[in-house]
Specification:
Belongs to the alpha-carbonic anhydrase family. This protein has 270 residues and is α+β, with helices and mostly antiparallel strands. The chain has 6 helices and 15 strands.
Length: 270
Amino acid sequence: MKMAATKILFISFLFLSSAFLARSAEVDDESEFSYDEKSENGPAKWGKIHPEWSTCNTGKLQSPIDLLNKRVEVVSNLGKLRKHYKPSNATLLNRGHDMMLRLEGGGGYLKINGTQYQLKQCHWHTPSEHTINGKRFNLEAHLVHESDDGKTAVIGIMYKIGRPDSFLSMIEKDLKALASTKGVERAIGTIDPKLIKMDGKKYYRYIGSLTVPPCTEDVVWTIDRKVKTITKRQMKLIREAVHDESETNARPAQPVNRRPIKFYKPEERP
């Protein structure tokens, strides 16, 4: 009898844990909200669409934010980003407002303060969601990682118009193929996340949230300071592949609320 009760409790725990993870993760179907600020389901009203999305309106650690120089604390003790990525089978999915590259089985991990965060997916926002000293860039990539206990860490990479991005060039035909379909997931074979180039030598670090519903907080954000480049054609392709009527899929900047923002800069050796 005692064993049976223990088994029931364990199963209940697993169910609640999986339910929590489902609620806290980014939604895969983004058709219920929009980025049109005048719309009834626009960014200012995301928190009223579903009770489990209320944090979008009530949270105090929301993302994105403006990374203003006078707010940041320059530090040298965070260390260079410790990424251990590996090739993985991948699929592209049109989620309604963005294109998501899902890495099946995880594409390796990122290590922060002793915690391993598995790389789960990558997606893009145009224009950038985060700003640096009020400046918005043409595109922002988000590499979303999750730990075994459900914590989230995201790396953000900014892009401006310039030379082609080699990774986007590699998946260009797949983006084009999805542009003529809707709600279709496309297997694109093995992808090596190391090809998503980033610098990692200097970066911003702060605690924020997912930038789409349910806007779950306590997300560890790392924003690479080096701005990469894409062509106008690549940026246009990412927007046109998404089936919505909005010209943007970037959430407006959120209040900082006196959060500490650190800027990692390695000490210069004499």
